[in-house]
Amino acid sequence: MNTKLVILVVFITCSLTPWVGMVFADTLTPEDFHETSWSKTIDFFDYARNHASAHNMTPPSSDVHAYTQLTYINVGALQVLSWGLCNITTGETTLTIPTQTTLMHFTTQNESRHVITASSFMMLLAFNDTAQSSYPGSPDVNDTLYASFSLGYNLSEMFPGSKFPELTCTSSYIPLTYSDDLLNWHWGMKYTNLTAFWWRIYIDPANPHYEIAFPVGMAVYDELTFTYNLTISPETHTAMLTENHIIGRVRDLWRFHWTLIPPHLTGLHYNGTGCYLLDDSFVSDETVYAYLTAQNIGMSVIDFQTTFLGDHETQSQSSDGQNVTDNDVDVSDSFVSTCTDAGEKVVNASFGAKETYNLFNYTLDSNETIYQTYDAVTMTCRIGGYAHNPIFARHLSFMRFFPLFVAHLYEPLYNRAKTYFKDMTRADYFYSISYPTYSGYRVEHDPTYTVYYSGEVIPEFPTQILFAVTLTLATLAVFLGKRMRLRKRSTAEKL
User: Fold this and answer.
1) I need a labelling partner for 400 at 20 to 30 A (CA). Which of 67, 229, 269, 419 fits?
2) Mutual angle of helices 463-494 and 2-14, in 10-degree steps
3) Would you say the pTM of this structure is higher than 0.70?
4) Domain range annotation of the chain
């Protein structure tokens, strides 16, 4: 009897705390956004369908599901919603498309204008610098580019009898933790054994496209991990978000080749031991790392940043005053500052704070404990080559529902959000963070974003006191349980 009482007291009391949502919640309601913090996995398209049904809107197809991990922080004048895609299912097809977006809502320091910022990871992009490269060490329109993510392509009919890995991988959540004063937060998401196709992509704004007929390759990455550290400074009215990218080593790489006369499709499989035909026949001792080095393949991540207000536009400039919106600008050793058209600071993306990345040479150290440091190359890009590229069709299929989140963060910006998330050309800027020295090894890097907000940090609930109360109530429940048993025993003895 006392055990049940303890469990009941602890459950009721803990249901008031922010971290209970991480365990029990699997739906999303407007009331959730009044909490201090939570973390949960939802079917994003189910959420969109329910919203569409309640508001006479066109819902997503009933057979499409997008399982996403949400992390929410609501401290004082700052709201942060981190969105990570686990996988998409369509009928019998399941795709893993690692996509990450962090939304932040706050008011500006001086004018107290409401602002929504969104930072989004779009994809990994492998590249080969050509002799005509406009910006060596970074992907550009004159380079050979390979977009790296799954589009659900079925290779079984092309290569009967060959074995390929599953297109789904394991995605796991790095639990949300925070300091006692609610000023430091940490969370993340990890994709393990990530399988992704390599698609030849072209980013010329005049003709953005990709070769949809057949992927040129397929890679298995040990992991792709995103960790986030949020540090809030009430004294300076700033909040700094550091994003750490970990691109795990390429464990396997398949390269596919078309021959026109006669029409024929062949392939090679590279791994850590050598090169093989698709039936596992040995070809040579050229490993995947030697192959990527010989082909001069670098790796990059493609992100975009967008900011919108209700009654003002924004402008983004490099530290030396260059306009970076829809422009190729090297910002490797500096930052990009986004301000309102009235000149008020909104957000800084600092790349000079961490100009270098760590590369772990698996060939020399299979434990990946020793690394070398190289310079990263960060470039803003012309928007049209990415925003209008049909390879992002699946991304746009769920990004158009992001305004539903904005409606919870700050409803007056809902209509503005519909315009910005429906059309990626409205972004402040696209940018690539590149790792030219690569060879398929593990990469670690962490750019930093700082937002400028108004207001003090006021915890909504005293969590330390709550834990003490919980412990006290649980102890009291045990004590009362014992007293009840003793009383019953005494009564029985008297009878």
Assistant:
1) 229
2) 160
3) yes
4) 115-460
